[in-house]
Design goal:
The chain is mainly α. It is built from seven helices and no strands.
Length: about 180
């Protein structure tokens, strides 16, 4: 089993148990609307390049399509524009700015210009923070027993979730 199959099993297993059929229909409907969207409406070109670099670091192209081939950036832009609240959109866009600030601080260059290893280090830091946020959320608010905790207001949780959702609702991932 390769990495993509493992991710698909994990993502699919968790999503199918937690999400309603209406949610999947809505996501597929959003996917179909992407065919009519010709320009980005929320992300500017620099932000789109940053989302592309992050998504490709999370799901790089191998013998199957990567995040770019699955149309992650247009999907993320559609969700930011039509589904996210102003507050969620602000958290996401500020998170993108923070990723570039981290790259500048650590490597004196923008995230998109970093090497794969440098990008991986930044995303690992963000993942560790996401885990801490999830632990804090788990300890502060009771949820359903065994349900995954969603760290509220965590940018990396948002971008990772959108990347995986975009990938697994795309036609490209089914091939």
């Amino acid at each position: 089993m390769d990495r993509r199959e493992a991710l698909q099993l994990l993502m699919g297993g968790a999503a199918f148990q937690l999400a309603s059929p209406k949610l999947f229909a809505s996501l597929r409907s959003a996917r179909m609307r992407l065919d009519t969207q010709t320009t980005l409406r929320t992300l500017n070109p620099q932000q789109a390049a940053l989302v592309t670099a992050m998504a490709e670091t999370i799901l790089p192209k191998t013998d199957t399509v990567g995040a770019t081939g699955a149309g992650v950036v247009p999907f993320v832009d559609l969700i930011l524009t039509e589904w996210y609240t102003e507050n969620e959109r602000s958290i996401f866009l500020n998170g993108l700015a923070d990723v570039d600030a981290r790259a500048q601080s650590a490597f004196a260059k923008n995230f998109v210009n970093c090497s794969a290893d440098q990008r991986g280090k930044i995303l690992t830091e963000l993942g560790e923070q996401m885990t801490k946020d999830a632990e804090t959320a788990r300890n502060s608010a009771p949820g359903y027993r065994g349900s995954p905790v969603k760290p509220s207001k965590n940018f990396y949780y948002m971008v990772r979730n959108l990347t995986l959702t975009a990938y697994y609702t795309s036609e490209a991932s089914q091939q």
